[in-house]
Protein backbone atom coordinates (compact mmCIF):
# COMPACT_ATOMS: atom_id res chain seq x y z
CA UNK A 1 0.00 0.00 0.00
CA UNK A 2 1.41 3.40 -0.99
CA UNK A 3 1.57 6.34 1.41
CA UNK A 4 -1.15 8.11 -0.62
CA UNK A 5 -3.51 5.11 -0.49
CA UNK A 6 -2.83 4.67 3.22
CA UNK A 7 -3.87 8.28 3.85
CA UNK A 8 -7.00 7.74 1.72
CA UNK A 9 -7.84 4.75 3.91
CA UNK A 10 -7.23 6.58 7.20
CA UNK A 11 -9.12 9.73 6.20
CA UNK A 12 -12.31 8.54 4.49
CA UNK A 13 -14.86 10.94 6.00
CA UNK A 14 -14.91 13.99 7.37
CA UNK A 15 -11.19 14.34 7.81
CA UNK A 16 -11.27 11.00 9.64
CA UNK A 17 -9.90 10.54 13.16
CA UNK A 18 -7.00 12.88 12.42
CA UNK A 19 -9.36 15.74 11.66
CA UNK A 20 -10.96 15.39 15.07
CA UNK A 21 -7.50 15.24 16.62
CA UNK A 22 -6.42 18.44 14.87
CA UNK A 23 -9.57 20.18 16.09
CA UNK A 24 -8.98 18.98 19.64
CA UNK A 25 -5.45 20.37 19.60
CA UNK A 26 -6.54 23.67 18.07
CA UNK A 27 -9.58 24.09 20.32
CA UNK A 28 -12.14 24.42 17.52
CA UNK A 29 -15.37 22.50 16.83
CA UNK A 30 -15.94 23.01 13.10
CA UNK A 31 -16.89 19.37 12.48
CA UNK A 32 -19.55 19.46 15.21
CA UNK A 33 -20.90 22.83 14.05
CA UNK A 34 -21.03 21.59 10.45
CA UNK A 35 -23.90 19.27 11.32
CA UNK A 36 -25.85 22.24 12.70
CA UNK A 37 -25.24 24.22 9.52
CA UNK A 38 -26.42 21.30 7.42
CA UNK A 39 -29.71 21.58 9.27
CA UNK A 40 -30.01 25.37 8.92
CA UNK A 41 -28.97 25.30 5.26
CA UNK A 42 -32.57 24.71 4.15
CA UNK A 43 -34.35 26.85 6.74
CA UNK A 44 -37.11 29.16 5.62
CA UNK A 45 -36.29 32.85 5.44
CA UNK A 46 -38.25 33.49 8.63
CA UNK A 47 -36.57 30.73 10.61
CA UNK A 48 -33.09 31.75 9.47
CA UNK A 49 -33.76 35.40 10.35
CA UNK A 50 -35.00 34.38 13.80
CA UNK A 51 -31.84 32.35 14.43
CA UNK A 52 -29.66 35.25 13.28
CA UNK A 53 -31.52 37.85 15.35
CA UNK A 54 -31.43 35.72 18.50
CA UNK A 55 -27.64 35.47 18.20
CA UNK A 56 -27.41 39.21 17.51
CA UNK A 57 -29.35 40.12 20.67
CA UNK A 58 -27.13 37.83 22.77
CA UNK A 59 -23.98 39.39 21.27
CA UNK A 60 -25.17 42.93 21.99
CA UNK A 61 -26.05 42.10 25.59
CA UNK A 62 -22.60 40.57 26.03
CA UNK A 63 -20.82 43.59 24.50
CA UNK A 64 -22.77 46.07 26.62
CA UNK A 65 -21.97 44.15 29.81
CA UNK A 66 -18.37 43.12 29.18
CA UNK A 67 -16.87 45.65 26.73
CA UNK A 68 -16.58 49.12 28.26
CA UNK A 69 -15.66 50.62 24.90
CA UNK A 70 -19.00 49.66 23.34
CA UNK A 71 -21.00 50.63 26.44
CA UNK A 72 -19.48 54.11 26.47
CA UNK A 73 -19.77 54.67 22.74
CA UNK A 74 -23.39 53.56 22.56
CA UNK A 75 -24.26 55.72 25.56
CA UNK A 76 -22.65 58.74 23.86
CA UNK A 77 -24.73 58.06 20.74
CA UNK A 78 -27.91 57.83 22.81
CA UNK A 79 -28.66 54.21 21.85
CA UNK A 80 -28.99 51.00 23.83
CA UNK A 81 -28.63 47.38 22.74
CA UNK A 82 -32.25 46.80 23.64
CA UNK A 83 -33.29 48.98 20.72
CA UNK A 84 -31.80 46.41 18.33
CA UNK A 85 -34.16 43.47 18.02
CA UNK A 86 -33.52 42.47 14.40
CA UNK A 87 -30.65 42.94 11.97
CA UNK A 88 -32.39 45.89 10.31
CA UNK A 89 -32.18 47.82 13.60
CA UNK A 90 -28.37 47.87 13.45
CA UNK A 91 -28.57 51.11 11.48
CA UNK A 92 -29.12 52.84 14.84
CA UNK A 93 -25.64 51.86 16.07
CA UNK A 94 -22.43 53.67 15.10
CA UNK A 95 -20.22 52.28 12.35
CA UNK A 96 -17.05 50.64 13.69
CA UNK A 97 -13.80 51.41 11.82
CA UNK A 98 -10.29 49.96 11.75
CA UNK A 99 -9.07 53.00 13.67
CA UNK A 100 -11.72 52.27 16.32
CA UNK A 101 -10.38 48.73 16.50
CA UNK A 102 -6.81 49.93 17.04
CA UNK A 103 -7.83 52.41 19.74
CA UNK A 104 -10.34 50.06 21.36
CA UNK A 105 -7.77 47.35 21.92
CA UNK A 106 -6.21 49.61 24.57
CA UNK A 107 -9.44 51.08 25.92
CA UNK A 108 -11.97 48.42 26.88
CA UNK A 109 -12.87 46.73 23.59
CA UNK A 110 -11.56 43.32 24.69
CA UNK A 111 -14.22 41.52 26.77
CA UNK A 112 -13.49 41.62 30.49
CA UNK A 113 -14.54 37.96 30.82
CA UNK A 114 -12.11 36.83 28.13
CA UNK A 115 -10.38 34.48 30.57
CA UNK A 116 -13.39 32.17 30.19
CA UNK A 117 -12.87 31.89 26.44
CA UNK A 118 -10.46 30.12 24.12
CA UNK A 119 -8.96 32.80 21.91
CA UNK A 120 -6.26 33.18 19.29
CA UNK A 121 -4.32 36.14 17.99
CA UNK A 122 -4.90 37.03 14.35
CA UNK A 123 -4.57 39.87 11.88
CA UNK A 124 -6.27 41.02 8.72
CA UNK A 125 -4.57 40.00 5.50
CA UNK A 126 -3.72 43.54 4.47
CA UNK A 127 -4.96 43.24 0.88
CA UNK A 128 -6.53 46.67 1.25
CA UNK A 129 -3.27 48.07 2.63
CA UNK A 130 -4.56 48.66 6.15
CA UNK A 131 -3.91 45.58 8.33
CA UNK A 132 -4.99 45.36 11.95
CA UNK A 133 -4.28 43.05 14.90
CA UNK A 134 -7.14 41.36 16.77
CA UNK A 135 -8.31 38.53 19.01
CA UNK A 136 -10.75 35.90 17.80
CA UNK A 137 -12.93 33.66 19.94
CA UNK A 138 -12.32 30.11 18.74
CA UNK A 139 -16.07 29.65 18.65
CA UNK A 140 -16.05 32.15 15.78
CA UNK A 141 -13.30 30.18 14.05
CA UNK A 142 -15.36 27.01 14.50
CA UNK A 143 -18.50 28.43 12.91
CA UNK A 144 -16.60 30.17 10.12
CA UNK A 145 -14.67 26.98 9.44
CA UNK A 146 -17.88 24.94 9.40
CA UNK A 147 -19.39 27.38 6.88
CA UNK A 148 -16.37 26.78 4.65
CA UNK A 149 -16.78 23.00 4.93
CA UNK A 150 -20.48 23.31 4.08
CA UNK A 151 -19.52 25.33 1.00
CA UNK A 152 -17.26 22.49 -0.19
CA UNK A 153 -20.17 20.11 0.29
CA UNK A 154 -22.38 22.35 -1.86
CA UNK A 155 -19.94 21.69 -4.68
CA UNK A 156 -20.06 17.93 -4.15
CA UNK A 157 -16.76 17.66 -2.40
CA UNK A 158 -16.10 15.04 0.25
CA UNK A 159 -14.48 16.33 3.41
CA UNK A 160 -10.82 15.51 3.73
CA UNK A 161 -10.04 15.46 0.01
CA UNK A 162 -6.59 16.65 -1.07
CA UNK A 163 -6.39 20.44 -1.26
CA UNK A 164 -3.63 22.70 -2.57
CA UNK A 165 -3.70 26.34 -1.55
CA UNK A 166 -2.02 29.12 -3.57
CA UNK A 167 -1.54 31.41 -0.63
CA UNK A 168 0.75 33.97 0.90
CA UNK A 169 3.08 32.68 3.58
CA UNK A 170 6.06 34.36 5.20
CA UNK A 171 7.73 32.67 8.15
CA UNK A 172 8.90 35.02 10.94
CA UNK A 173 12.63 35.32 11.49
CA UNK A 174 12.39 33.63 14.89
CA UNK A 175 10.22 30.66 13.86
CA UNK A 176 10.92 27.61 16.03
CA UNK A 177 11.50 24.08 14.82
CA UNK A 178 8.60 22.92 17.03
CA UNK A 179 6.20 25.36 15.36
CA UNK A 180 7.40 24.32 11.91
CA UNK A 181 7.03 20.61 12.81
CA UNK A 182 3.51 21.05 14.21
CA UNK A 183 2.43 23.03 11.13
CA UNK A 184 3.83 20.45 8.71
CA UNK A 185 2.27 17.52 10.60
CA UNK A 186 -1.13 19.25 10.64
CA UNK A 187 -0.97 19.90 6.89
CA UNK A 188 0.04 16.28 6.27
CA UNK A 189 -2.75 14.82 8.39
CA UNK A 190 -5.41 17.09 6.85
CA UNK A 191 -4.00 16.69 3.33
CA UNK A 192 -3.23 20.34 2.69
CA UNK A 193 -0.36 21.78 0.68
CA UNK A 194 0.36 25.52 0.88
CA UNK A 195 2.34 27.10 -1.95
CA UNK A 196 3.66 30.61 -1.43
CA UNK A 197 2.38 32.98 -4.12
CA UNK A 198 3.31 36.30 -2.57
CA UNK A 199 5.89 36.64 -5.31
CA UNK A 200 5.67 34.86 -8.64
CA UNK A 201 7.74 34.55 -11.77
CA UNK A 202 8.07 31.75 -14.33
CA UNK A 203 10.60 29.86 -12.18
CA UNK A 204 8.33 29.89 -9.11
CA UNK A 205 5.26 29.05 -11.21
CA UNK A 206 7.12 26.11 -12.74
CA UNK A 207 8.04 24.78 -9.29
CA UNK A 208 4.46 25.20 -8.04
CA UNK A 209 3.06 23.48 -11.13
CA UNK A 210 5.39 20.53 -10.65
CA UNK A 211 4.26 20.26 -7.02
CA UNK A 212 0.60 20.33 -8.09
CA UNK A 213 1.21 17.56 -10.62
CA UNK A 214 2.81 15.37 -7.93
CA UNK A 215 0.27 16.11 -5.21
CA UNK A 216 -2.72 15.88 -7.62
CA UNK A 217 -5.18 17.94 -5.50
CA UNK A 218 -8.94 17.56 -5.83
CA UNK A 219 -9.51 21.15 -4.65
CA UNK A 220 -7.40 24.13 -5.66
CA UNK A 221 -7.93 27.21 -3.50
CA UNK A 222 -6.18 30.55 -3.57
CA UNK A 223 -5.96 34.26 -4.19
CA UNK A 224 -7.79 35.24 -7.37
CA UNK A 225 -4.67 36.68 -9.00
CA UNK A 226 -2.60 33.61 -8.05
CA UNK A 227 -5.12 31.27 -9.67
CA UNK A 228 -5.19 33.52 -12.73
CA UNK A 229 -1.40 33.59 -13.08
CA UNK A 230 -1.13 29.81 -12.64
CA UNK A 231 -3.79 29.25 -15.31
CA UNK A 232 -1.99 31.65 -17.64
CA UNK A 233 1.33 29.86 -17.08
CA UNK A 234 -0.26 26.47 -17.84
CA UNK A 235 -1.87 27.83 -21.02
CA UNK A 236 1.22 29.63 -22.28
CA UNK A 237 3.41 26.57 -21.78
CA UNK A 238 0.97 24.00 -23.18
CA UNK A 239 0.91 22.03 -19.93
CA UNK A 240 -1.63 19.43 -18.79
CA UNK A 241 -3.92 19.86 -15.81
CA UNK A 242 -3.53 17.23 -13.06
CA UNK A 243 -6.26 14.58 -13.33
CA UNK A 244 -8.01 14.77 -9.94
CA UNK A 245 -8.96 18.47 -10.01
CA UNK A 246 -12.70 18.91 -9.36
CA UNK A 247 -13.09 22.31 -7.65
CA UNK A 248 -11.42 25.72 -7.76
CA UNK A 249 -12.13 28.18 -4.94
CA UNK A 250 -11.16 31.84 -5.33
CA UNK A 251 -10.85 34.12 -2.31
CA UNK A 252 -9.25 37.22 -0.76
CA UNK A 253 -9.28 39.33 -3.93
CA UNK A 254 -11.85 40.47 -6.46
CA UNK A 255 -12.45 37.81 -9.09
CA UNK A 256 -13.15 39.69 -12.32
CA UNK A 257 -15.19 38.07 -15.15
CA UNK A 258 -12.10 37.95 -17.39
CA UNK A 259 -10.06 36.24 -14.65
CA UNK A 260 -12.83 33.69 -14.07
CA UNK A 261 -13.07 32.93 -17.81
CA UNK A 262 -9.32 32.39 -18.15
CA UNK A 263 -9.12 30.06 -15.12
CA UNK A 264 -12.14 28.00 -16.19
CA UNK A 265 -11.06 27.74 -19.84
CA UNK A 266 -7.54 26.55 -18.95
CA UNK A 267 -8.23 24.31 -15.96
CA UNK A 268 -11.58 22.99 -17.20
CA UNK A 269 -13.28 23.33 -13.81
CA UNK A 270 -15.82 25.89 -12.58
CA UNK A 271 -14.45 28.60 -10.30
CA UNK A 272 -16.39 29.00 -7.04
CA UNK A 273 -16.04 32.37 -5.34
CA UNK A 274 -16.01 33.06 -1.63
CA UNK A 275 -15.67 36.19 0.51
CA UNK A 276 -14.21 36.77 3.93
CA UNK A 277 -11.57 38.74 5.76
CA UNK A 278 -8.86 38.28 8.34
CA UNK A 279 -11.16 39.93 10.88
CA UNK A 280 -14.31 37.91 10.11
CA UNK A 281 -13.76 34.43 8.74
CA UNK A 282 -16.26 32.68 6.47
CA UNK A 283 -18.65 35.42 5.32
CA UNK A 284 -20.20 34.42 1.96
CA UNK A 285 -19.93 31.46 -0.41
CA UNK A 286 -21.02 30.82 -3.99
CA UNK A 287 -23.46 28.01 -4.70
CA UNK A 288 -23.17 25.82 -7.82
CA UNK A 289 -26.80 26.12 -8.92
CA UNK A 290 -27.51 29.86 -9.00
CA UNK A 291 -23.83 30.93 -8.82
CA UNK A 292 -24.75 33.37 -6.03
CA UNK A 293 -22.60 34.13 -2.96
CA UNK A 294 -24.79 33.33 0.03
CA UNK A 295 -24.06 35.09 3.33
CA UNK A 296 -23.50 32.62 6.19
CA UNK A 297 -26.14 34.34 8.31
CA UNK A 298 -25.83 31.76 11.06
CA UNK A 299 -22.43 33.36 11.69
CA UNK A 300 -22.29 36.90 10.32
CA UNK A 301 -24.51 39.83 9.36
CA UNK A 302 -23.54 41.71 6.20
CA UNK A 303 -24.78 45.24 5.62
CA UNK A 304 -24.11 47.38 2.56
CA UNK A 305 -24.57 51.07 3.37
CA UNK A 306 -24.31 54.45 1.68
CA UNK A 307 -22.07 57.29 2.85
CA UNK A 308 -24.60 58.24 5.53
CA UNK A 309 -24.54 54.70 6.94
CA UNK A 310 -28.01 53.66 5.73
CA UNK A 311 -28.62 50.28 4.07
CA UNK A 312 -28.81 50.08 0.28
CA UNK A 313 -29.78 47.15 -1.91
CA UNK A 314 -28.84 46.29 -5.49
CA UNK A 315 -26.31 49.13 -5.65
CA UNK A 316 -22.70 49.51 -4.50
CA UNK A 317 -21.99 50.58 -0.95
CA UNK A 318 -19.61 50.08 1.97
CA UNK A 319 -19.61 46.60 3.49
CA UNK A 320 -20.20 46.36 7.25
CA UNK A 321 -19.74 43.04 9.06
CA UNK A 322 -21.06 41.88 12.42
CA UNK A 323 -19.45 38.66 13.68
CA UNK A 324 -22.13 36.92 15.75
CA UNK A 325 -19.68 34.51 17.38
CA UNK A 326 -16.59 36.52 18.36
CA UNK A 327 -17.24 37.36 22.01
CA UNK A 328 -13.57 37.97 22.83
CA UNK A 329 -13.35 41.12 20.72
CA UNK A 330 -16.79 41.87 19.27
CA UNK A 331 -16.91 43.41 15.80
CA UNK A 332 -20.29 45.11 15.41
CA UNK A 333 -20.99 47.04 12.18
CA UNK A 334 -17.31 46.73 11.30
CA UNK A 335 -16.30 48.61 8.15
CA UNK A 336 -13.94 46.12 6.56
CA UNK A 337 -12.79 48.42 3.74
CA UNK A 338 -14.55 46.78 0.78
CA UNK A 339 -17.39 47.83 -1.49
CA UNK A 340 -20.12 45.39 -2.46
CA UNK A 341 -23.68 44.85 -3.62
CA UNK A 342 -26.35 42.99 -1.63
CA UNK A 343 -29.58 41.77 -3.20
CA UNK A 344 -32.82 40.39 -1.82
CA UNK A 345 -33.57 38.52 -5.03
CA UNK A 346 -33.93 34.80 -4.27
CA UNK A 347 -31.40 32.39 -5.70
CA UNK A 348 -32.52 29.53 -7.94
CA UNK A 349 -30.83 27.06 -5.57
CA UNK A 350 -33.63 27.56 -3.04
CA UNK A 351 -31.44 28.67 -0.13
CA UNK A 352 -32.89 31.57 1.81
CA UNK A 353 -29.62 33.20 2.81
CA UNK A 354 -29.13 36.82 1.69
CA UNK A 355 -27.00 37.07 -1.46
CA UNK A 356 -23.81 39.12 -1.73
CA UNK A 357 -24.08 39.71 -5.46
CA UNK A 358 -20.70 41.25 -6.08
CA UNK A 359 -17.53 42.65 -4.54
CA UNK A 360 -16.78 45.81 -6.50
CA UNK A 361 -13.87 47.35 -4.64
CA UNK A 362 -11.28 44.75 -3.73
CA UNK A 363 -9.09 44.29 -6.78
CA UNK A 364 -5.46 44.20 -5.71
CA UNK A 365 -3.15 43.85 -8.67
CA UNK A 366 0.26 42.29 -8.36
CA UNK A 367 3.29 44.58 -8.51
CA UNK A 368 5.20 43.78 -11.70
CA UNK A 369 8.97 44.31 -11.61
CA UNK A 370 11.55 44.73 -14.34
CA UNK A 371 12.69 41.09 -14.05
CA UNK A 372 9.18 39.75 -14.70
CA UNK A 373 8.44 38.89 -11.08
CA UNK A 374 4.97 39.69 -9.73
CA UNK A 375 4.42 40.34 -6.01
CA UNK A 376 1.03 40.35 -4.29
CA UNK A 377 0.35 43.57 -2.33
CA UNK A 378 -0.51 41.57 0.79
CA UNK A 379 3.01 40.11 0.83
CA UNK A 380 4.33 43.34 2.36
CA UNK A 381 1.76 43.19 5.13
CA UNK A 382 2.79 39.67 6.13
CA UNK A 383 6.50 40.51 5.80
CA UNK A 384 6.39 43.60 8.02
CA UNK A 385 3.55 42.74 10.41
CA UNK A 386 5.51 40.45 12.81
CA UNK A 387 7.78 43.31 13.94
CA UNK A 388 6.13 45.23 16.81
CA UNK A 389 8.70 48.01 16.35
CA UNK A 390 7.18 48.84 12.93
CA UNK A 391 4.23 51.14 13.56
CA UNK A 392 3.55 52.00 9.92
CA UNK A 393 5.08 51.16 6.56
CA UNK A 394 4.74 51.34 2.80
CA UNK A 395 6.60 50.24 -0.33
CA UNK A 396 7.34 53.12 -2.69
CA UNK A 397 7.87 52.16 -6.33
CA UNK A 398 10.56 54.50 -7.59
CA UNK A 399 10.80 52.42 -10.77
CA UNK A 400 10.14 48.77 -11.77
CA UNK A 401 13.79 48.17 -10.83
CA UNK A 402 13.93 50.21 -7.62
CA UNK A 403 11.79 49.84 -4.47
CA UNK A 404 12.04 51.80 -1.25
CA UNK A 405 10.56 50.34 1.95
CA UNK A 406 9.65 53.19 4.30
CA UNK A 407 8.96 52.29 7.94
CA UNK A 408 7.94 54.27 11.01
CA UNK A 409 9.67 52.73 14.03
CA UNK A 410 8.78 52.97 17.70
CA UNK A 411 12.32 51.78 18.46
CA UNK A 412 15.27 50.48 16.47
CA UNK A 413 15.03 46.97 15.04
CA UNK A 414 17.52 44.42 16.26
CA UNK A 415 20.32 43.64 13.82
CA UNK A 416 18.99 40.09 13.39
CA UNK A 417 15.45 41.28 12.62
CA UNK A 418 16.66 43.99 10.25
CA UNK A 419 18.89 41.55 8.34
CA UNK A 420 16.07 39.00 8.06
CA UNK A 421 13.62 41.65 6.83
CA UNK A 422 16.00 42.96 4.17
CA UNK A 423 17.02 39.46 3.06
CA UNK A 424 13.37 38.39 2.76
CA UNK A 425 12.49 41.47 0.71
CA UNK A 426 15.46 40.93 -1.63
CA UNK A 427 14.54 37.28 -2.06
CA UNK A 428 10.99 38.31 -2.95
CA UNK A 429 11.93 40.89 -5.60
CA UNK A 430 14.60 38.72 -7.23
CA UNK A 431 17.64 39.64 -9.27
CA UNK A 432 18.06 43.03 -10.91
CA UNK A 433 15.83 44.98 -8.51
CA UNK A 434 17.26 47.38 -5.95
CA UNK A 435 15.63 47.45 -2.49
CA UNK A 436 16.23 50.16 0.09
CA UNK A 437 15.08 50.12 3.72
CA UNK A 438 14.43 53.62 5.09
CA UNK A 439 13.14 54.70 8.53
CA UNK A 440 10.87 57.76 8.23
CA UNK A 441 8.93 59.97 10.63
CA UNK A 442 5.56 59.29 9.01
CA UNK A 443 3.90 57.68 5.98
CA UNK A 444 2.07 60.23 3.80
CA UNK A 445 -1.40 59.55 2.47
CA UNK A 446 -1.99 59.15 -1.25
CA UNK A 447 -4.30 61.35 -3.31
CA UNK A 448 -7.11 58.78 -3.25
CA UNK A 449 -7.23 59.01 0.55
CA UNK A 450 -6.40 55.30 0.94
CA UNK A 451 -3.35 53.82 2.61
CA UNK A 452 -2.08 51.14 0.21
CA UNK A 453 1.03 49.15 0.95
CA UNK A 454 2.38 49.75 -2.56
CA UNK A 455 2.34 53.26 -4.02
CA UNK A 456 4.21 55.45 -6.43
CA UNK A 457 5.84 58.61 -5.13
CA UNK A 458 3.86 60.81 -7.52
CA UNK A 459 0.58 59.52 -6.03
CA UNK A 460 1.44 60.81 -2.55
CA UNK A 461 0.08 64.05 -1.15
CA UNK A 462 3.52 64.92 0.27
CA UNK A 463 6.94 63.35 0.50
CA UNK A 464 7.95 61.14 3.41
CA UNK A 465 10.52 62.81 5.64
CA UNK A 466 13.55 60.68 6.59
CA UNK A 467 13.76 59.74 10.25
CA UNK A 468 16.32 61.67 12.22
CA UNK A 469 18.67 59.22 13.91
Task: Itemize the secondary structure elements and their pairings.
Blueprint: H1 3-10, H2 16-26, H3 30-40, H4 45-66, H5 68-76, H6 98-104, E1 119-123, E2 133-137, H7 138-154, E3 163-167, H8 177-189, E4 192-196, E5 199-200, H9 202-215, E6 219-223, H10 224-236, E7 247-251, H11 257-267, E8 271-275, E9 284-286, E10 293-295, E11 300-305, E12 317-323, E13 334-343, E14 355-359, E15 367-368, E16 374-375, H12 378-384, E17 390-399, E18 402-409, H13 415-429, E19 434-439, E20 454-456
Parallel strand pairs: 3-4, 3-6, 6-7, 7-8, 17-20, 18-19
Antiparallel strand pairs: 1-2, 5-16, 8-9, 9-10, 10-14, 11-12, 12-13, 13-14, 15-16, 17-18
Helix pairs in contact: 3-7, 9-10, 10-11
Please name the CATH architecture of the largest domain. Answer: 3-Layer(aba) Sandwich
- How would you sum up the major sheet? 11 strands, mixed
Provide the β-strand percentage band. Answer: 15-25%
Radius of gyration: 22 Å
CATH superfamily of the largest domain: ANL, N-terminal domain
At the fold tier of CATH, the topology name of the largest domain is: Rossmann fold
Terminal CA distance reads 64 Å
Number of helices: 13
CATH class type of the largest domain: Alpha Beta
Average pLDDT taken over every residue:
85
How many runs of DSSP E, i.e. beta strands?
Answer: 20
Instruction: Give me the secondary-structure category.
Output: alpha/beta
Give the tally of structural domains.
2
State the shape.
Answer: globular
Strand order of the largest sheet: 4-3-6-7-8-9-10-14-13-12-11
List segments where confidence is low: pLDDT < 50 over at least 5 consecutive residues. 1-5, 7-15
Helix content: 25-40%
Amino acid sequence: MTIASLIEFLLPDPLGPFGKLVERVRGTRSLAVLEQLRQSDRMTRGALSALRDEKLQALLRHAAKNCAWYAERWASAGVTPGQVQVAGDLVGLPVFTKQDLREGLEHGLVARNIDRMQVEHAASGGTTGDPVQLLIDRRSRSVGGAALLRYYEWWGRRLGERMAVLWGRQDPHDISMLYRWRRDVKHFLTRRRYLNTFYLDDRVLAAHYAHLRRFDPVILRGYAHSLYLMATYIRDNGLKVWPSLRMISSTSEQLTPSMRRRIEEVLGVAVANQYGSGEVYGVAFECPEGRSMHVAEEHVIVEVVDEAGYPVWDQPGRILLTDLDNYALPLIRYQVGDLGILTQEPCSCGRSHVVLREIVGRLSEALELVNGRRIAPSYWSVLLRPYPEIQDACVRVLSPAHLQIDVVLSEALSLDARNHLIASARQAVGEGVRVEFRPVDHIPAVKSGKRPWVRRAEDEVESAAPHNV
